[in-house]
Write a structure and sequence with these properties.
Blueprint lengths: L1 H4 L10 E8 L13 E6 L5 E3 L2 E2 L10 E2 L3 E5 L5 E6 L10 E8 L2
Antiparallel strand pairs: 1-8, 2-3, 4-5, 6-7
Length: 105
């Protein structure tokens, strides 16, 4: 370890790194980026906002991001629709910003 990271074995090092995952602001960038809806954000008319939510607490070292899609199986007449809205899951584009902060708190 000393050789790989140039750390002196006789010293104590303390540092805390906090990483924040911030979803892109899909609302102010109204392009056709494939993303579902945020489960907790609504616009002024009460409709879901395009985006995703990030869990506050990591599980087993991983952070979970969640978005909502709707699956339409069939219409009232029984005709097969078989479609996800607003986008197919395989087409989603997860755009985010990683912010790292060193802190002693």
């Amino acid at each position: 370890m000393k050789k790989d990271f140039f750390i002196q074995c006789s010293c104590i090092y303390c540092a805390f790194l906090i990483v924040f995952i911030t979803p892109r602001d899909y609302a102010s960038n109204p392009d056709n980026t494939a993303m579902g809806w945020s489960l907790v954000d609504y616009n002024s008319t009460g409709k879901y906002v395009k985006g995703f939510d990030v869990a506050k607490t990591p599980v087993n070292g991983y952070v979970t991001a969640t978005t909502m899609l709707r699956y339409i199986n069939c219409d009232l007449a029984g005709r097969t629709i078989n479609k996800f809205i607003p986008y197919e899951p395989s087409n989603l584009i997860w755009q985010y910003i990683l912010s790292e902060y060193l802190t002693w708190d």
